[in-house]
Fold this protein.
Amino acid sequence: AVVPPSETMAALSTSAAAISFGRNVADARALRVSAPTVNAVVPRTSLKTEAMVKIRFTRLGRIRTPFYRIVAIDSRKRRDGAPIEELGWYDPIKKQSNLNAPAIKAWLAKGAQPSDTVGALLRKSLIIEKK
């Protein structure tokens, strides 16, 4: 009589486990490892996150001698982070400014929001209308 190889291996492993380790070893059939179940990954609908662009100051200069650049920057970035575009500068000590009006108007047309201080400067220089 021909015995299938799977039955002989199970019988050998059970008897070998019982011989070598006595009663402390669990049944070999209980130790079988099953293939892991595959969790199907369901594709999500793509989330479209659009970052708000702000027009705000980035500080330069020395201690107690501020100098600001006016930049278009992602609203989530830090104050002195890498800007998308530099739009001008403002020196509060000398009260001088240099603004790139066409670029600022283009960013405002795209939906960029100026900060309160930059908005006041843009109204003062007549780039945006007063409220």
Summary: Residues 87 and 100 are 5 Å apart (CA to CA). Strands lie at 53-62, 65-74, 85-91, 96-99, 113-114.
